Amino acid sequence: NDFWIDDIAIALHKEAEPSPAVFSLADAPAIASSDAAHQIDMNEQNLSTLSLNLQDVLSSGESDLFINDGKIQLKVTGEAGRELTLNDLMPDGSDSGEWNSVGNVKVAGVEYQVFRHSNQSAELLVQMGINTTLENH
After folding, report:
1. What's the pTM?
2. Under 8 Å CB-to-CB from 112, ≥6 apart: which residues?
């Protein structure tokens, strides 16, 4: 008899701490530098609210991860009702364009809304059900 074990994960269990009112990647460099930096799982990170800016997407994303179009892409997953704010400003306050919704795409059977920056090669894929607010200046 042969037995196979697959997908084992070992982790310490700790009680969830309440997330801050608004969370950004600047608050958690460990997320930005993790192996899965191209994806932010709001459920796994226990985030009800997340704020991202253009620099977050450019620095944490990777080219052609989910859509083969030459854009730097980052993916946000989470349950319906979570809140995401997407800001078009760079950390220095400069504004090089704005975010626009350009449609939906399915990745591994999950549907995402795609937001593309007008002047940078950046796209953010947001799981359907996450409430997304665009802050274009």
Report:
1. 0.75
2. 66, 75, 104, 105, 106, 125, 126, 127, 128
Which residues on neighbouring strands pair with residue 131, listed in sequence order?
83
Round to the nearest angstrom and report the end-to-end CA distance of the chain. Answer: 64
Please check whether residue 54 is in contact with residue 90, taking contact to mean a CB–CB distance below 8 angstroms: yes
pLDDT at 57 over 70: yes
What are the structural domain ranges in the chain? 23-113+129-135
Residues with Cβ within 8 Å of residue 73, at least 6 apart in sequence: 38, 57, 61, 62, 63, 64, 65, 66, 67, 122, 123, 124, 125
Q: Alpha-carbon torsion 18, 22, 27, 33, what sign?
A: positive
Q: What is the pLDDT of residues 7-20, one digit of tens each?
A: 455 555 445 454 44
Residue 30 pLDDT class (50, 70, 90 cuts): very low
Per-residue pLDDT tens for 85-102? Answer: 999 888 888 888 999 999
CA 54 remoteness from chain centre: 11
Q: Give DSSP secondary structure letters for 12-27.
A: ---PPPPPPSSEEGGG
